[in-house]
Amino acid sequence: MLATAKHFRERGVPAGVQVFLAQRGIELSSSAIVRARTESYMLGYEFWFAGLVATQDRRFYWFELELDVSLDKVVYVHEYSEMTERQGASVRNRGAGKGDGALAIEVVLALNGVLPCGRAGQVGRPLRRTLNGNHGARRRYEN
Fold this sequence. Notes:
The chain has 143 residues and is α+β, with helices and mostly antiparallel strands. 22% of the residues lie in helices and 34% in strands.
């Protein structure tokens, strides 16, 4: 997920996809494409692009688009739907751990330079868990 998001953040997406998402209020500068699939010459069109976008406000959108040869124009929209309710946003799933939605949100926050606790700062720096002896087993996160 992180590799896909970094790839599209660094290299960008076709202009047609970027315009399509921007028209729907999704800015790729603060969101991330966490799943993507591309095909050439799909169903008679030159280029097909499908993906799952995770936004910074924890919303998920699935889209399937067909683009023209220049990749600047969306020729046909196969699907565009909100998938927020279907993503496993829980960080504690019995037997599985974090859900895909929770992982995707962490990817978006990491790419935007925000620590998991919501503070801006150095990304990738491990957080240390400590126990506060005076108040039971309450966790405190420190940098």
